[in-house]
Structure formats: C-alpha cells, structure tokens
What we know:
This protein has two domains: about 5-195 and about 310-340, 3-Layer(aba) Sandwich (Rossmann fold), CATH 3.40.50.620; about 215-305, Tyrosyl-Transfer RNA Synthetase (Orthogonal Bundle). The protein has about 350 residues and is mostly helical. The two termini are about 40 Å apart. Helix content is about 55%, strand content about 5%. It has 15 helices and five strands. Helix 2 (about 25-40) links the parallel strand 1 and strand 2 (about 45-50). Bound molecules: adenosine-5'-tetraphosphate (AQP). Adenosine-5'-tetraphosphate (AQP) binds near residues 31 and 153.
Amino acid sequence: MTKESIKQNPQRIFSGIQPTGNLHLGNYLGAIKNWVSLQSDIPSIFSIVDLHAITVPQDPAKLRSSIHEVTAAIIASGVDVKNSILFNQSSVKEHTELAWIFNCVCRIGWLNRMTQFKEKAGKNREKATVGLYNYPVLMAADILLYKASHVPVGDDQKQHIELARDIASAFNNMFKNEKQEDFFSLPEPLILGTATRVMSLRDGTKKMSKSDDSDASRINLTDTRDQISNKIKKAKTDSNPLPETLDELKTRPEALNLINIYAALSSQKTSSILEQFSGKGFSYFKPQLIELAVDTLSPISSEMRNLLKDTKEIDKILKIGQEKAKNIAEPILKDVKNLVGFIN
Length: 344
Ligand code: AQP
C-alpha cells in the first residue's frame, strides 16, 4: 500500500501513541512523520493511548505530564489539529465498551501468538497484567471504532493490525444485518518510509524503545544538540568503512540502522544514502548524521517547550478532539450494540 494509492481512494486513518515517557526518534520516524505527511490526503484520527499505557504500572502524576508532553510533541511535529482529530483515548469511553465486545469475539489462541506480549512480559509472564495480554484487543477496538481503513504504524505493530483484521472478520461472520453485509471492512497497516523499525543506538538488533533502561540507546525528541551529538558519537558501530551494496550493509545491523535513520530524516532512499557514503568511515558519516538529526529535531523540541508552557491550552485541544472523536464513535458503537442484540 502506497501513499499514492491512498490518495486515489481516501477513507480514514487511525493511529495511536502511548504516553509512556519521552518520545524518541523511532516513534517520530516510524509513526508521527508519516501521520504528518498523510493528514492532508486522508481524514485522520490520532490518539494518545493512555489506556494502553496503564497495561504496565504508571505513576499517576508522571502519566498526566506524559499525556501533555506527547500531545505537545505530536503538534510540534506538524499534526494539524484543525483538520485532524487529536484526543486522549480514555476520554472516549466507547473504546473500552467496544474492546469488551471484542473480548467476546477474539480467541485466546490468537492472543497467545502475539510476540509483543511475550517480549514485554518476558520471564515474569505470570505477573504481567491481564491488560498487557489483552492490549491487542483494545487496539482492534481503537481502529474499528472509527471504521478506519488504514493504520500508519512502525513495523512492530504489524501483527497487532493482523489481529484487528481477524477480529473484524470474526465479528462480520458472527453478526449480520438483514442484508447479510459485512459490518467492518478490514483495516490495512501502512508501514511507510525507510525507518519502519529504528534500532537501539547501543544494539542494532534491538528496537529503539522508550522503556530501554539506557537513555543512550535512543534519541529523545526533547534531547539537546549536545545530547544528540554525544549519543550519535557513541552509537555502536564497527571499524570498517561503509560498504557499496545493500546486501553487505544488511550484515552490519548498527551501520544499517544509522544509514536508515539518515535516509528517513532526509526523506531519501537507503540506496541513495549508501551511494553517497560508501567507502567512507563513521568519523566522516557521523558528524553529518548529527547535523541532520539536530536540524530536524531542534525545531520540534523548541516548539514542544513552547506548547508545554500552557498545559490548559493543550487540555482544550484534547477536549475538542474528544468531541470530534465521539461524534464518529458513538453511532458506530450503537450499530455494533444493535447487531450484538443489546437494547440501547
Ligand atoms: N523503534 C521504532 N521504530 C519505528 N517505529 C516505532 N514505533 C515505536 N518504536 C519504534 C512506533 O511508534 C508508534 C507508537 O508506539 P508506542 O509508543 O505506542 O508503543 P511501542 O511500539 O511499544 O513503543 P516503545 O517506544 O517501544 O514504547 P514502550 O517502551 O513504552 O513499549 C507505533 O506506531 C510504533 O510502531
């Protein structure tokens, strides 16, 4: 699925981001940058998914400030809240209502296959919350509550979108209207750009993540010029010059990651960047990557700081988003409840 094909048949996108800490370059390149470029071609709904955040323990005061920070980061990155809908998930109660109905559609076997739960629960599986296990069902409700046709996400969320499709199909088979039509069409993942999975700066085989213990593993959207520069300087690499071919690059995960980041930040193809830097060492490449990262992220972090001076204004923006989201969600949930056989 390309941006061009969406332009020809625009429907609606939904995507969310968790307020679980500082947003990082992976969230920006894998999700938000694509939201910004899609929003003028297709009606867009973006959510700060606070209900997902509490699937792991959160400090209430920190959660509240994270919701403000993530909202500010999304707006500072270029999401236009006049034309797109931006709201926090818990303010639209229809998400949890639909999630319950989907709990009674989704099969345990389907959830048992979800790799993200296995990674996040780790060895402490018995102590993980039911919410962490159930997370993909809520995510299916987030998407289908708005009958979204496309979901722009990073590569790590592909399996969850497949589950949303399975839930939609199962619901369609279980509940038919008089005309025997499918109620939901199946949402498509939109995994765009060259940085669909930005990797840790300390380990090119691990995803860059908010919850990594090492702050040096990620570039936060709030990092200063010096922090960005130090993190890229210290990013793990090898001592060989950059190769000529993509096949060779693919055998060097840390080098591939940095080249992909450069390509995504400059909106170019990985192959063109490799052509530009092949034969050069990291001492030549890294300073240029630092310049590009600082030039891209500095305006975002300075606008974020500006927006965060007035959190009441952020609350107002979220409130407007909540109302717009509810206007779409309420009638869809009402139809779902009718199909299920509830009286409402
Ligand atoms: N490393 C990444 N590369 C590309 N895309 C990424 N995304 C996350 N990490 C990367 C995309 O960002 C969007 C929002 O993700 P999220 O914050 O809701 O959850 P996550 O995927 O669990 O992100 P983190 O940073 O790893 O958070 P924690 O540490 O809290 O679990 C999604 O579209 C995701 O694909």
